[in-house]
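Lecture notes, unit on binding sites. The following record was shown on slide 14. It pairs a sequence with 2-acetamido-2-deoxy-beta-D-glucopyranose.
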Amino acid sequence: MKSSVLLAVISALSSTALASCDTPPRVSLYSPGSSHAGAVGAAYFMTNEPTGNYLVSATIGSDGKLALYEAVYTEGNGAHGLPAPPGLDALFSQGSVGVSSSQKFVANVNAGSNTVSVFGIDESNPGYLTLIGKPVSSGGEFPNSLTINNAGNRVCVVNGGKINGVSCYTFNAKEGLTPIKNSVRSLGLNQTTPATGPPNTPSQIIFSPDEKQLIVSVKAGFLAVWDIDSDGSLSSNFSTVDGGVLPFSLIFVPGQNALVASDPGVGYDVFDLAATTRSKAAVSTVIPNQKAACWSAYSKESGDFYIIDVGGSVLTEVHVSSSLNSTIVKQYSLGTDGPIDSEVATVGKKDFMYTLAANATGLTVVSVNGPGKAEVYQRVDIAGPAKTANLPINSTSLQGLATFICQ
Ligand SMILES: *[C@@H]1O[C@H](CO)[C@@H](O)[C@H](O)[C@H]1NC(C)=O
Ligand SMILES: *[C@@H]1O[C@H](CO)[C@@H](O)[C@H](O)[C@H]1NC(C)=O
Ligand SMILES: *[C@@H]1O[C@H](CO)[C@@H](O)[C@H](O)[C@H]1NC(C)=O
Ligand SMILES: *[C@@H]1O[C@H](CO)[C@@H](O)[C@H](O)[C@H]1NC(C)=O
Ligand SMILES: *[C@@H]1O[C@H](CO)[C@@H](O)[C@H](O)[C@H]1NC(C)=O
């Protein structure tokens, strides 16, 4: 008995020691003269490095501007999908990092370790994250997207590797994530670990607004939909909604049982989940000169969606009417940003889009300013501060973007 306790203590000590030598738990990214004192929120993304995945925070000031804060070790590894050489879409996904505003935590996938980590947010300093518990198994391989319910007590993740499918957890602030019984479900994709894509990989997982269904977009022209029981368990099989070519990011149209999906095979798709004939549920729209329209964000201030094209460094603003007809409002060039994961947050009364500018190894803040009036507001370099701080980082690995605004 005594010796087993001693062994446990020794192994706990040695893993702590390992973590603190090879991979420091925290790396400061403060730039001289930056102020975090008046932060009203933060944006989070991950380095997704195979040698050790860090979650990076940047505080959001009352003017909506970002200031890099620090990187915290997730106790997991990142990964990059196949084939090589890697592009700017390591995980072929949107939603690899998520935030719960209600329970004040950040969750991220560790695609190279098949785990999910959760961190508590300190509201008095939203750049400061504290790992809760230990990373938990993702229930499959190459987890690439996650979703959190409104109450912040449930998290579901999708895996895109050889063992692919979904898996759900309860969240509480003391223990972190606990697997929910009968929630590990297969997608049945013929895949590899790491996943080979982008085609034939899952892209994003989200709850329906009533949280009675779990939806995953798959870049094989369909959405997979599971029914969720009151105890959080999932139907054994999923139903499919066919449509699009390579449906990628998913965002519900406010007030509608319909989704907008970015789609690098065409531009974007509108899925009408209330359509009586499931095969007629999707309408795809071509974005002219589209190269890789993989990500998206929605702004309440403009009432529009922003489809994000990494290949052309272009934002396409799209309006979707209550009858689900859509129009392209305007297109914006983001120079050579190579924008990927993005999220809109409201600071004061203004909406800002926080974008991971992967190709520039930076972050770009876009001020929404109402419909058709978006403009680049701030550019933040990540490469320089990371180099100074000795934090391994690579533009082809960076993934995820989620924001938290203090209440
Ligand atoms: C799975 O994919 C591999 C590689 O493309 C292929 O060789 C194999 O036949 C596929 N298996 C099935 C069951 O479709
Ligand atoms: C799920 O799918 C399998 C294989 O297609 C089928 O045998 C089974 O009856 C289905 N289960 C339910 C509950 O629909
Ligand atoms: C929406 O599009 C359909 C056909 O594409 C058209 O019949 C209908 O009038 C449009 N509705 C609106 C409100 O534009
Ligand atoms: C990525 O950056 C390089 C170097 O600045 C530039 O030549 C290239 O056009 C950029 N790509 C995109 C899609 O903006
Ligand atoms: C980033 O990753 C690519 C692809 O693995 C590699 O070729 C390149 O050398 C890396 N760059 C740095 C600065 O490590």
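Take-home: The mean pLDDT is 93.
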